[in-house]
Specification:
Number of helices: 6
Radius of gyration: 16 Å
CATH topology: Rossmann fold
Low-confidence stretches: none
Number of strands: 9
Family: Belongs to the glucosamine/galactosamine-6-phosphate isomerase family. 6-phosphogluconolactonase subfamily.
Bound molecules: the ligand O=C1O[C@H](COP(=O)(O)O)[C@@H](O)[C@H](O)[C@H]1O
InterPro entries: 6-phosphogluconolactonase_DevB, 6PGL, Glc/Gal-6P_isomerase, NagB/RpiA_transferase-like
CATH class: Alpha Beta
Keywords: Hydrolase
Function: Hydrolysis of 6-phosphogluconolactone to 6-phosphogluconate.
Mean pLDDT: 97
Protein name: 6-phosphogluconolactonase
Number of domains: 1
Distance between the termini: 24 Å
Structural class: alpha/beta
Strand content: 15-25%
Length: 238
Amino acid sequence: MSETVVVVVPDADILASTVAARLVIRIIDAQAVHGTASVVLTGGRVAAKVLRQVRDLPAAAAIDWSRVDLWWGDERFLPSGDPDRNETQAREAVLDTLPLDPARVHAMPASDGPDGDDADAAAARYAAALSAAGLRFDVLMLGVGEDGHVASLFPGHPVLEKEGIAVATYDSPKPPPTRITLTLATIGNADEVWLVAAGPDKAEPIGTVLRGGDLPAARARGVRKTLFLLDEAAASKR
Ligand SMILES: O=C1O[C@H](COP(=O)(O)O)[C@@H](O)[C@H](O)[C@H]1O
């Protein structure tokens, strides 16, 4: 049975270092069991902070980075290298400094990629790659939007009803309007789902979710564990 755990720490900086430390240990443990580790990254402000902390942790030296698969939960469908792409931000925060195997860094396609600006084709390409890799994730991290969105799954948006592994979404309320996102079904394949939120703007959605309200963030659940990793401000309305 899946367990839900809520961890609250004093502030956003401590949250970033706590999540980074957990992530490093989780990757080390996954590699001990499977030989590899499969991690799904999120975009957003807290994610960049976490990744910068990973780089500075001495224990990260115990990871064989060449045997880590990195995926993304969602992407802003923009040209490669655009500063607003979640991939670009993760690369700048840490990825470009780690000895990763480029073939294991599975960024979502860009709008100037092999499918051009056809977001549906780009999402189908990513879904095929995920499917070929077996859809196994040790950890899947998600930021939480002020409106309770996770990945690019916005409340009340038709994308929530789309079926598949990864799908394109249009008319997102948060720019840019065109995005690619994992579906809730795919998110639900992860062994552990970590919802990471910091700051007073996240207090309302987090409070709603922890009281059992219906938001996309409430529907993201891990197979074995769902972890809410919060700072005190984000946890203040629960
Ligand atoms: O646009 C996005 O926003 C959410 C939340 O970002 P935050 O800066 O408010 O933490 C993020 O989780 C998602 O990956 C991203 O595409």
